[in-house]
Design goal:
Strand content: 15-25%
Number of strands: 3
Shape: elongated
Number of helices: 4
Distance between the termini: 29 Å
Largest sheet: 3 strands, antiparallel
Order of helices and strands: EHHHHEE
Length: 141
């Protein structure tokens, strides 16, 4: 008979926690929870907007500081102030998403471990041609 040895990958809380620090929601996705996708998307969109408004605020600050005509000062300052406030609000929402995702993982992971069937390492004897024997090793990535 042909026997097969299967090692199943199990997700520990520590691994899920570290994944969640890199990308909020990744820890929840590791446990098979769909809400992790919401955290990941919200974090990614927020980070993209944060980068945009950080660059925008810097450009508008430079434009305001270089303005020489007194009639344009108020408009330049108003543009800079709006962009600056948006950037700061995005920093706050970035931190909230990160913290909320970690709190969700801490409180609702339930100390569970999930066997991921698609992530198996298997070792089995194989027969290539009559009289030729080998070992087949399957390692998914």
């Amino acid at each position: 008979t042909v026997s097969q040895i299967v090692y199943k990958k199990q997700i520990s809380f520590g691994s899920a926690f570290l994944k969640n620090m890199v990308l909020p929601g990744w820890g929840q996705l590791s446990y098979g929870k769909d809400r992790g996708l919401i955290y990941s998307l919200a974090y990614t969109v927020n980070l993209g907007a944060l980068i945009y408004f950080a660059i925008d605020a810097s450009r508008k600050q430079d434009a305001y500081q270089r303005e020489t005509e007194e009639a344009n000062f108020d408009q330049r300052y108003s543009d800079y102030n709006k962009s600056y406030k948006m950037r700061n609000n995005l920093w706050i929402s970035w931190a909230v998403i990160l913290l909320y995702s970690q709190i969700d993982l801490l409180l609702f992971h339930g100390e569970e471990r999930i066997d991921l069937e698609s992530n198996k390492i298997s070792v089995a004897p194989s027969l290539r041609m009559p009289g030729e024997y080998g070992v087949a090793i399957r390692i998914p990535f």
